[in-house]
Amino acid sequence: MNLRRTVHLSTLVAMLLVVFVIGYLYTSSNLGTTITTYTAFSTVTITKTEINISTVAQTITVTAVETMTLKPRVILEYPSNPQSSADFNDDGAPEVFAEINPWNVKSYKGVQRVVIDPLSRGIEVYIDVKDVNPLTWTNGYPEIMIGRKPWGKSYANGYGVPFPMRVRDAKPFIVSFYICLERYSPDMNLNIAADAWIVREPIAKSPGTPPGSGDLEVMVWLFSNNLNPAGNKVGETRIPIVLNGTVVDAEWEVWRMDSVTWGGWQYIAFKPKNWKHVCGYVAYNPVDFVKEAAKYATFDVSDHYLLSWEIGTEWGTISSGGGASLLWRLRDFVVIPGASISRS
Predict the structure, then answer these.
(1) Of 31, 46, 97, 234, which alpha carbon lies 20 to 30 A from 117's?
(2) 327: which strand partners?
(3) What is the phi-psi region of residue 315: left when phi exceeds 0, alpha when psi lies from -120 to 50, beta otherwise?
(4) Of 332, 279, 244, 330, which Cα lies nearest the Cα of 21?
(5) Pick from 107, 143, 199: nearest CA to 311
(6) Using one digit for the tens of pLDDT, what is the confidence trace for 170-204?
(7) In this structure, which CATH number among 1.10.390.10, 2.60.120.180, 3.40.50.2300, 1.10.530.10 belongs to the domain 72-342?
(8) Full 3-state SS string of the chain
(9) Buried b vs exposed e over 45-82: b needs ≥16 C-beta within 10 Å?
(10) CB neighbour class for 128 (10 Å; exposed up to 12, middle 13-18, buried from 19)
(11) What CA dihedral angle connects 165, 166, 171 and 173, to 10 degrees?
């Protein structure tokens, strides 16, 4: 992995947090519902519209004077309350969806829980299960997402990314977040991965319509344990990513399955080559991966539409005899339309 010199994305993230950090005491074990009101005065300076190793493209100064109501955390549990939207800034539009998403679990014993924390702009995922049926590589994908899945009926577009976004016209945007996989069973199947759907126009324009042959699922992995992407390795590439404030000209393996057995669409995954990221800040331009995936797809996706960008962990039980235990936290989730990362 070729580490390029440090840029100040971590500073950007820290400054963005100023508007809501005053008065905040984060305690992961406290699931109370106390609501506190305060006023935050801050100046947020975004130093780069394009995050570039050698140049500063633009400086934008935003003065925020905001009265915020600290909302209680939302607890999702399966099967009673498996998903919810979150309006982090109280503007009436959801910034994200969060869900437990045990899409390949028929029965189990134990707990599956996702806690949405509006103040930290993130989620906490706790899974402790046994006797999971079926035993398979991937049983679930607890996640946070912008946009919508093909099966979904509405979009989380509060950050201003114009989903659905036609691939040929796709404009860059930065997804930035802190994620930490704090505990997991060493014998289970697991990754930290993003997921996205690139679908034909009739699918994009008909919410709730499932994908199929001629559509594309794209994943971007940061870490894996006892797990490889579906299909076979078909190439290698370099795509820049920011890890803990440092731009990395990262190497990726490219994996592809031409037709997934559970839906018929094509699948392409980017897996880190000789590196991993388990805990810390991450930022990248999803459009970089969409455009690279288009080179490896076996059909033209230029007129397809990008519907979403999802961050989560696929977990499975085939190597652990039906058990899985994990705890991870994601916070400081920020999306910046129009921003990109450059190698130069």
Answers:
(1) 46
(2) 126, 183
(3) beta
(4) 332
(5) 143
(6) 999 999 999 999 999 999 999 999 999 999 999 99
(7) 2.60.120.180
(8) CEEEEECCHHHHHHHHHHHHHCCCCCCCCCCCCCCCEEEEEEEEEECCCEEECCCECCCEEEEEEEEEECCCCEEEECCCECEEEECCCCCCCCCEEEECCCCCCCEEEEEEEEEEECCCCEEEEEEEEEEEECCCCCCECCEEEEECCCCCCCCECCCCCCCCEEHHHCCCEEEEEEEEEEEECCCCEEEEEEEEEEECHHHHCCCCCCCCCCCEEEEEEEEEECCCCCCEEEEEEEEEEEECCEEEEEEEEEEEECCCCCCCCEEEEEEECCCCCCEEEEEECHHHHHHHHHHHCCCCCCCCEECEEEEECCEECCCCCCCEEEEEEEEEEEEEECCEEECC
(9) ebbbbbbbbeeeeeeeeeeeeeebeebebbebebeeeb
(10) middle
(11) 40
Distance CA(301)–CA(169), nearest Å, equals 12
Taking the C-alpha atoms of residue 72 and residue 113, their distance in angstroms, rounded to an integer, is: 16
pLDDT value at 270 more than 50: yes
Structure tokens at 191: 């990754």
Alpha-carbon gap, residue 16 to 207, rounded angstroms = 33
Can you read off the two tokens belonging to residue 115? 């806690």
Count other C-beta atoms under 10 Å from residue 17's C-beta: 18
Q: Tell me how crowded residue 342 is: count the other CB atoms within 10 A of its CB.
A: 15
Residues 241, 245: Cα–Cα separation, whole Å: 10
- For the chain, the maximum distance between any two Cα atoms, rounded to a whole number of angstroms, is 54
Tokens of 283: 């930022």
* Residue showing tokens 């400086």: 59
User: What token pair was written down for 282?
Assistant: 């991450």
| Confidence (pTM) | 0.83
Over residues 323-340, mean pLDDT: 97
